[in-house]
Amino acid sequence: MALKTEHLKEAKSALKSMSTRREKTLTRADFVTGLIKDIHAKMTAGFSLEEICEELNKTLPEDEQLNMNTFKTYVRRARTQAGIAPTRAWTRRTGPPEPKIQTTPNKGRTKGQKEDPASDFRDQGGDL
């Protein structure tokens, strides 16, 4: 059986109908990635991630709610993909790091004379 031009036309129309039939489902990560610029703008305005997550959960269905820890992960990943710098550090440190203690060698000190071990009363074994 040889292929004819009408087979080609039918195949093209079948492929076109495939793309219109199925709609891509949006994952939670894609949802956050699509909103990352708006989320970043709200964070620079002073809102916390917890407040933003609560507000987004109000718009989502009950079974599609965002978990706070997962939301932070999605925001971090979307930020790196978009090349956006974080608004603040993720660590808990609030002050400057503690300086490391630096010991200096004994400058100008003379070494003390060592005592004669025979003068130590514990070693003599006699009465005190």
Q: Low-confidence runs (pLDDT<50, min 5 residues)?
A: none
Structural class: mainly alpha
What integer value in Å does the Rg equal?
36 Å
Count of runs of 4 or more consecutive helical residues: 6
Strand content: under 5%
Fold and architecture overview:
This protein has six helices and no strands. The longest helix has 17 residues. It starts with a helix and ends with a helix. The protein is elongated, with a radius of gyration of 36 Å. The protein has 128 residues and is mainly alpha-helical. The mean pLDDT is 76.
How would the blueprint of this fold be written?
Elements: H1 5-21, H2 28-34, H3 36-44, H4 49-59, H5 68-82, H6 121-124
Concise account of the structure shown:
The chain is mainly alpha-helical and 128 residues long. Helix content is 49%, strand content 0%.
